[in-house]
Amino acid sequence: MPSPFQRGDTYTVKPYRDINPLYGVSTFDLVYLRNYLSGEFQFFSPFQIIAADGNGDNLVNATDSLLIRQLIVGLIAEFPNIGSWRFVSKGYEFPNPQSPFPFPEEITINNLSGDAVNRDFWAIKAGDLNFSVDTDSLYNRGVSGRVRIDSDNDCVISAGEQPLEGWTATANGPLGTFFGTTNEDGNFVIYLPSGTYDVWLNKPNNLWDVCVDTLTGIQAMLLDTASMVDYSVQVVADCPKMDVDIATTVLRRCFQNYYRVHYCNNGTVTAENAYVEVQFDAFLTVLSSSLPWTSVNGNTYTFDLGDVPAGDCGYFNVVVSLSCDAVLGQTHCSEAHIYPDSLCEPVNTLWSGANLEVSATCQDDEVTFTITNTGSSMTAPLDYIVIEDIMIQMTGGTILLDSGEVHTISVPANGSTWRVEMPQVAGNPWNTFISAAIEGCGENAGGAFSLGFLTQYPENEYGGFTDIDCRENVGSFDPNDKQGFPKGVFAEHYIPRETEIEYLIRFQNTGTDTAFNIVILDTLSPSLDWASLRPGSSSHPYAFSLAGPGVAQFVFQNIMLPDSNINEPASHGFVKFAIKPRKDLPNQTTIENDAAIYFDFNEPVITNSTRHTVGEQYLSVSGSALRPGIELVVFPNPTATKAVFSIQSRSTEQGMMYLYNLQGRQVRTQPFGANTFEFDATGLVPGVYLFRLDTAGGALAAGKLVVAGKD
Prior knowledge:
By secondary structure, the protein is mainly β. Among the domains are: 11-125, Orthogonal Bundle (Type 1 dockerin domain); 141-235, Immunoglobulin-like (Sandwich); 356-461, Immunoglobulins (Immunoglobulin-like, Sandwich); 623-707, Immunoglobulin-like (Sandwich), CATH 2.60.40.1930. Strands 5, 8, 10, 12 and 13 form a five-stranded mixed sheet that branches.
């Protein structure tokens, strides 16, 4: 049969494919596009930008986001103008990868002289921005692998070896760091752009050892042809490792509320006769629970779990009522402790065996803190600090305790929120610092007590065996929001370096029909250590995965969440997870994060943005100057109208004054350019306020300002 092509003629080769336009397109891609359009991050590949152009107009904008959403929910059957694939002449070098338009979508062959071979194209799936399309294309590249318990200790995966679910694998290469999470079969996939990567497995604790820590030089290949990356995991010690998490969506006075207690055995053997003790806040009354309690001692309830095999997780709910006697905004702390809690992980050789614990009591006109050494004798002294609201009142406390010895600290019961914190002894296997705080002991001059300070600081928890949930009760609240605990201090929301942040994402179905599936996507801040993420408690069962460049996904499949018009109490839900900031962050680094909540195929609900600032020594010493050689006088104090600030310094100081209420909210700012300046307190509600003077050289002074009512 003669060829239809004639020598000497000119031909154009242009591929086209329009099969299953929805293939590989999901709400994940919408999140990527939203973050790109908002400027939160850039795409790492020009092919992602081309894939985001949903109508072929060589632009990426809100119209493309709308088209992708319409395709997902079925309002359109295909993308207009472009089909389901875009094609780029293979080997084309983009002059500007961040602005790839226009690009050659066809190949022209001039003066055909014979067979034209190797006229190849790169194929780009329209709308798929996260490498999820499952076909032989540029996006079907990455690393897949298996994680198994190496039961015969030969570092080779054998048939019948137990898979490990929920482990995170990390791939790091020239274009960034990417993640995959093992499923119930112990398998993971990390979708990657072309390149060479180092791949490693993140261990949940020190009871496990990986035969090969890091596999280097792994090529991102077509996943249907790539060999598996296998990880054999060996047991270091036969030990149950019980972790517990307690959380609630909201606490409202005079209403029924509920807690969800979630637990897992992340150890290597079955935890026999396991149980959880939950000490509920004094203002809470337990009404019922999905798992019957076996004993009650005051407000401490015990729940038997039986034998919990290694790798198993479970949960139970507890319904409580919050007393109407609680003050609006008061904090309520409940603590869960899971057993067995025996220490059987390898111990740090630096640990002396000492273990410090601190507690707080309110009695009569005093707050008493008791620091107890429940372990071996301390070998080196440690300092503690005492904080009143957000000001340090005492910095010179040093203790060196023998085994069983105690040290007490007393402060006045004046309605302030008092807190003691100090580092734990070096190498302690349970925690790195200890603290105790108390709210609502006594009254201030106004007959009330300070609120909102307990949740600004980290909680004192022990190695996963315990979890403390401190929550302020509320009147009205946003049903779809995100909170980060600790909340942090001052308007900057300062937290100490390397403090783990617990994020709580709440959602409510306020629509007009049942929500069948809910997906929460959280594109994590690059200042967070993505590999440290620990999924936590939730209102309903979910599937978690960490994928792409730091995208946490929580899928509530078949949640069947009723709408608030039909069943308001059951229309709420939540999920909690914990994550640490990166260790290399400089001071003053700001960590901001929000989440997208998808109710079936509706537009996502974008939560508020949480904010934390990493810092150290950010707390101020009450009533004194912080910088050596500086003194500060404020008069009159109390004042009803104006107060004069007089800075006694050899140099002229200038900066900014910040004024906070007792909830830590910034209410006034005022610049100053001289060592004596006047502050106008007119319009402030009478009460106690906290001030801070900052200069370019850092904090200068801080203290309290009392605003009195006019006679």
